[in-house]
Amino acid sequence: MALLEVHDLHAGYGKMEILHGITLKVEPGQIVSIIGPNGAGKSTVFKSIFGLLPVRQGRVLFAGEEVTNRSPEALLRQGMTFVPQGRNVFPLMTVEENLLLGAYIRKRSPELLEEVQRVYETFPILREKRTARAGDLSGGQQQMLEMGRSLLLQPKLILLDEPTLGLAPLVFKEIFRIIEGLRQRGQTILMVEQNAAKALEISDYAYVLELGKNRYEGSGEAIRNDERVKRLYLGR
């Protein structure tokens, strides 16, 4: 059974409809990427799935249960987390305070503190910076903090929206290395990423959107090697 299924999704802002019947699914343990030009509706898909934007038509199923238009907090409790694009940390709080605050729906326990240590193992720089204010971190370190914070919610699915946006090349490579490592640990990830070629390289499956509609889909490798996709979306 697919972990996430989206059927005929329609959504938008005010009178403007952005999504015109998007359909996709994510199997457990996969990295699935959504690519396409600016304005294709990629981030709008995430907002609709996560209850931040009303679904006007269509269905969202999570672990076999209908969750269309369910609140973000309810989805968090069911095991879906969302790491939006941009930096969304609490700048005056320390790294560790940010991590623990991110797990606010869980009780403070020895198990939770052990998981904080596992986050530090995944993101060693966060251990070094654990007492530093989050606002003083670099962009890449803040991105790692957001991803680490989401892991403390024990997610079944992570929605990653543009995880390398604005990052330096070395940090960009590190973020992708971490994403692949999470998949090796069994984590399921649905990702929107500006660097489509790199996203396709690590993806099990991919969807190409254009003007709020499905255009192509297939394995990451098949989409990366598709001449139409290369010409239209990968700049080749």
Q: What do you see in this structure?
A:
There is one protein chain. The longest helix has 16 residues, at 169-184. Helix 3 runs parallel beside helix 6. The strands form two sheets. Strands 6-7-8-3-9-10 form a six-stranded mixed sheet, with helices on both faces. The chain has a four-stranded antiparallel sheet with strand order 2-1-4-5, covered by helices on one side. The chain is built from ten helices and ten strands. Helix content is 38%, strand content 26%. The chain is of the alpha/beta class. The mean pLDDT is 93.
Q: What's the short version?
A:
This protein is α/β, with parallel strands linked by helices.
SSE blueprint:
Layout: E1 4-13, E2 16-26, E3 31-35, H1 42-49, E4 57-62, E5 65-66, H2 72-78, E6 80-83, H3 95-102, H4 110-122, H5 124-128, H6 139-151, E7 157-161, H7 169-184, E8 188-192, H8 196-202, E9 205-210, E10 213-219, H9 220-225, H10 227-233
Parallel strand pairs: 3-8, 3-9, 6-7, 7-8
Antiparallel strand pairs: 1-2, 1-4, 4-5, 9-10
The percent range for helix content is 25-40%
The rounded distance between the terminal residues' Cα atoms is 36 Å
For the largest beta-sheet, the strand count, sense and barrel status come to: 6 strands, mixed
Strand content: 25-35%
Structural class: alpha/beta
Global Rg: 17 Å
Number of helices: 10
